[in-house]
Amino acid sequence: MSRPHWNDLARWWIDEFTNGVDAEYEEQILPLAATELAGCGRVLDVGCGEGQVSRLAAACGSTVVGVDPTTELVRVAVERGGGPTYVRAAAGALPFRDASFDAVVMCLVIEHIDALADVVGEIARVLVPGGRFCSFLNHPLFQTPGSGFVEDYVLDPPEQYWRVGRYLEEIDHVETVQPGVQVRFVHRPLSAYVNALVEAALFLEWMFEPAPPAGFLARAPEYAATAAIPRLLYLRATKRSQLPASP
Ligand SMILES: C[S@@+](CC[C@H](N)C(=O)[O-])C[C@H]1O[C@@H](n2cnc3c(N)ncnc32)[C@H](O)[C@@H]1O
Predict the structure, then answer these.
(1) What pLDDT score does 218 carry?
(2) Ligand 1 pocket, 48 CB below 6 A?
(3) What is the chain's Cα-based Rg?
(4) How many structural domains is the chain composed of?
């Protein structure tokens, strides 16, 4: 199977997740991003897509640059305006000088990228010492491939539970997220993310596993049973001035 490309997914992403139509963005991701980026002067949004996080940061007073390699998403970002400037580039080779941003945000991007260490290294490079890396990602434990809600009618009364897939295996997989829409994810365990931060001298300050927001749970009765299973993981890290000494 050929790899799904974000140019082909652009219309789906724009229609289903932007401009106020998605409960997780509206109730959870965007408010948290606004709080986390507040007061950051120069913000880089890596994998900015059509620019919803970039526009938000610009509306909060930051000077924002969005980068994304997907031509169609950058075109729509420019069209939607709102203050940020945009550059077509991939996360592994950011076209900026060292220490040029006070904060870097990545929202639902890192789990689509292969070269984790290179990308996290690039982010650390463009941050000023003391700068903030804000990363939103699909929760790598509960959203492991093969995970999902199960209603088990073998037992009487039936049981409901969340099945977790093969969490420890790092795999590149293509998921059918809705009929006719296939998205490529690179699954890795949480330790891979944490260790990539450590190796890039990014000090993990806060980890947040929010419950799915009310607007998401309200979409269907079966979602109510998943209220205690996080979909999102947020990691905030700060660039250290120097690497910690080896143990
Ligand atoms: C799920 S969308 C998220 C878009 C945006 N961050 C948002 O929250 O609306 C994933 C984005 O990752 C981008 N992307 C994929 N590979 C990338 C790479 N190597 N470097 C930077 N962005 C990438 C895609 O073009 C797409 O815009």
Answers:
(1) 86
(2) yes
(3) 18
(4) 1
Task: Please give the distance, rounded to the nearest whole angstrom, from the Cα atom of residue 39 to the centre of ligand 1.
Answer: 24
pLDDT at 116: 98
| CATH number of the domain to which 89 belongs | 3.40.50.150
What is the mean pLDDT for each group of 10 consecutive residues in the chain (247 residues)?
82 97 96 98 98 98 98 98 98 98 98 97 98 97 89 86 92 92 96 97 97 86 82 96 63
Return the ligand 1 atom nearest residue 49 CA: 27
Q: Is the pTM of this model over 0.90?
A: yes
* Domain limits for position 95: 6-141+188-239
Answer whether residue 118 is part of any domain. yes
Which residues have a Cβ under 8 Å from the Cβ of 210 and sit 6 or more positions away? 28, 32, 230, 232, 234
Q: pLDDT at position 157, please? A: 86
Residue 54 lies in a domain: yes
With respect to residue 154, please indicate whether it lies within any of the assigned structural domains: no
What is the structure's pLDDT at 241?
A: 80
**Region at 33 (left for phi over 0; alpha for psi -120 to 50; beta for the rest):** alpha
Cβ 69 under 6 angstroms from ligand 1: yes
**Residue 12 counted as domain residue:** yes
Amino acid at 176: T
Buried b (16+ CB within 10 A) or exposed e, 13-26: bbeebbeeebbbbb
CA of 157 to the centre of ligand 1 (A): 43
Measured from the Cβ of residue 45, the count of other Cβ atoms closer than 10 Å reads 33
